[in-house]
Every structure is written in C-alpha cells, then in structure tokens.
What does this fold into?
Amino acid sequence: MSNVLTSNVDTCSSEFAARRDAMLKALSEIDSQLALACAGGGERYLARHRSRGKLTARERIELLLDQDAPFLELSPLAAWGTGYTVGASVVAGIGVIEGTECLITANDPTVRGGASNPYTVRKVWRASDIARENRLPLVSLVESGGIDLPTQGEIFVPGGRMFRDLTQLSAAAIPTVALVFGNSTAGGAYIPGMCDYVVMVDKRAKVFLGGPPLVKMATGEEADDEELGGAEMHAKVSGLADYLAVDELDCIRLGRQIVSRLNHKKLGPSPTSAAIPPLYDPEELLGIVSESVRVPFDPRDVLARVVDASLFDEFKPLYGSNLVTGWAAVHGYPVGLLANHRGVLFSEEAEKAAQFIQLANQIDVPLIFLQNTTGYMVGKRYEQGGIIKDGAKMINAVSNSGVPHITINMGASYGAGNYGMCGRAYNPRFLFSWPTSRTAVMGPQQLAGVLSIVARSSAASKGEPFDEAADAKMRETVEAQVEQESMPLHVTARLFDDGIIDPRDTRDILGICLSAISNNEIKGRRGYGVFRM
It folds into this structure.
C-alpha cells in the first residue's frame, strides 16, 4: 500500500514567512515581464492593429480554444534582456480545440509585422519539437512578414528548418493547419504552403513570395496585392487556400471545424486512477524553498503538495539519501519521481538513480526530475571511489531512457548534476523553472574562486608577485556575471527551459504535460549502452 507523505513545514515560522515573501517578490518580477510580452509591440502598434479591425494574437488563440480550456503558454519570455521584444514576436503553447490537444503558434503582427528574428525561429523550432515528440496537431495562426531583414544574416540559413519541420510533421501523420489572417510574405508564405490545411481571410490574407515592389524590380511586371496573393485568388486560382473565410471569426470557426474532423486519437495510456488533490495546500509551496540555493529543503515537502492524495512509494529510502526516488500519480497518471535532497550527488545516489530509471523503462512509466543539485561530489576520496564512472551510469541511464521525461528546476542546477537530472541537453519533453532556480556550471563564488586559484598558481610558477587587488576585483566581476547568467530570466530568455512557473501551478502544469505526452506511445528502452562497473 502507498505511503502518505507527512509534512515537516512549519507554516507559522519566520523562515517560512521570509521565503514566501521572497518568492512572491520574484513572481511579481516575472509577472511584470509577462505583461510586457502580452503588450506585444506596444500601445501605438496595438492601437493601429485594432484600428484595422483585427484581433490580437492572444485574442485569436482564446477564441480558437474550447471554452474554459487551459492554455499552457511555452517560452513566453523568450528574448528577454536582448534587443528584441519580450516574447520574440510569437505566442506558442498547448491548448484544447474541439476536444483535441494541439500545439498552437501565433505570429504577433504588432511586433514588426510579425517578422521572425533569431529568437522567433528558436521558439518556433522548440514548438515544432514538442508537437513532433508528443504527436500534437500543430495549428499556426499566421500573419508574418517573413524574416526580419536586418537579422537575415543570423537566421536565413538555419531558418529553413521551420519549413522542414512542417513537412516532417505531415509525413509523420501529425496534422498541420494554417489560419492566415493577414500579410504572409516571403518566408511567411511558406507556412501555409507547407501545411496540410489552409484557411485564408478574404480581403485580409495576402500570401506571396514577393510583393508588388519586388516583382516590379525582379521582372518589371505590374501587379497589385490581390492579383499576386489575395485570399480569393488562392482559393479560386492557385489552390493554395482550402477554405475562404469571410472574416477573422469565420477563419477561427473553420479552424475549429478542421480540427474536429482530424480523427486524432491518443496512442498513449489514459489516467489509471482518480486525480485526488494532495492533502496539503499547494499555496504552501511558496514558503518551502529559500531564495538562496545554499539553504537545503526536503523535496518530500514539495511532493506532498504535488502528487495525488500525497501518496508516494519511496524507492531505496535508506540508500543514497541525497536523492529521493519513488512512485506516485499526478492527475491520475502514474509517474516515477527523482528529487534532489541536500544537493550533492555521491556514488550511491548515481547508482540508485540509474537503477530507478531502468525500472521505469521496464514498466513504461514517465519520469519527473525535480532538480536542486550542486553536482557530483569531488575530492580525492570520491575520485578514487569511482564517482566519474558512477555518475556516468546515471547519465547513461538518463540519456538512453525511452520513457518521456519532465524536468522542474526548483533550486540549483549546477555542473554535471544538471545533466544527470535531465537538463535541457538531455531532451526532456518539457522543462520548467521556479523563480528560485539557478543554472550554471557551478556557483558564482566557486567559479570565481577556481579562477583565482589558477591565476595565483600561474603567478607563483612564473615567480611573479600576485596582484591581490586585481584578484579581488576579478572575483567580484566574475561572481556578478555568473550570478546574472544563472538567473531564471536569463535562462528562459535563451529557451533553455519552457518557461518560469509559479510553484503553486506545478501540479496542474505537470498534469497538462502528462496528458499531452499521452498523445504518443509511451514505451521504455529495454537495452542500454555499456555501464562501467
């Protein structure tokens, strides 16, 4: 029988209150950046867009989704901290249309006409990966001027992947639908050109490889927008449009109609138990994790507020205690969980993880990784004890695991611990971060200290005096840089995760992801590479 988790959290303590206040402050900063993403190109361009009688990208998505259906937005803060608009001029996420889970992308025409910059294409690539891996129909809400020309040198060559991805989705029998609301020129024209189904809005959609000025320059031919790429022309003459919508609302109606006829069936398992809420209030997750990654916490206190009925069958509870492993359910879906406790990973934790991952693959159960690790232990004793080969077993198991992985970075994600706990390079189906998370090769003080030791040793070997003042300044500069680069906003801006989430939403986000994953088969790997013994 499953064990009910108990909680050691004192919700009346000053420590809990301080941690909660720090988390709420961090969430407030995230909310302010999300507001910038929702604002698109800003008030001026939003007003101009509305004056043309057009809906915004987010309004189009809202009308496309089933009533009251959730929308899990992905990478909403892409391009934060760069010269590009927060959100990267495209909205992406998972939502339900006519009862079918779909991956939805929508160009934001209030940001440079919906043109694609380097972060736009990376965000669209990530969306395509999610659609392919989880077998989700892809619905593209198109209004794009193609490549943002000043950045063409960065994105023209790799940008072709967007079109390749669409054709490969179609070849894998994953439906692709394009709803075209406005100008879709040059590269933007290939989106409907590559999709299975195309709807265009009459008098609004303009789809052509080259507009009138380019055609005039290239061929000397005189032609207007409608002749070159109007929706009616494409519906009656070229055949590019399968459906001609009278307006935006009609386009959305036709899009929902298409999805309703896809006959899309899930290939994976349905929930195997009732989705019983945890015994403990998820609101309390705000006060469990410190804003300092140096302060440890028990991940069981997190699990008690995430898994169904707070029931958790812990695996090897007396061995490798710095890593908690075990079985539970989330929204009725069976899962295996690996959660760091006290940060550092020793050989025992690595071996325990490798065995547990193999067991999950034997029974075809998805794995959830809850990261809070400073990495694998270093030192003479541990090197001689085989920490490298034991860590390699864990990384081998993670790398070759065939069941879907979902990763949540709650705190630290440093060094090879990031790899062993299924960081971005190990292709989890989804990866989200809490506002308390940090991601780097090591902590800022440790990294600066290593550089200082190397510089001091170099000076000594050359017989040169060591400049203590310059060293102190270097350490201060490096610590500040690493701290900034390890912050969740920096990480999410570069699409190293799929978004920063409110800890209170963790359970429901995991539920949406597990449901999306079940659109495809869930089958574990039965064979692995060589494990160094």
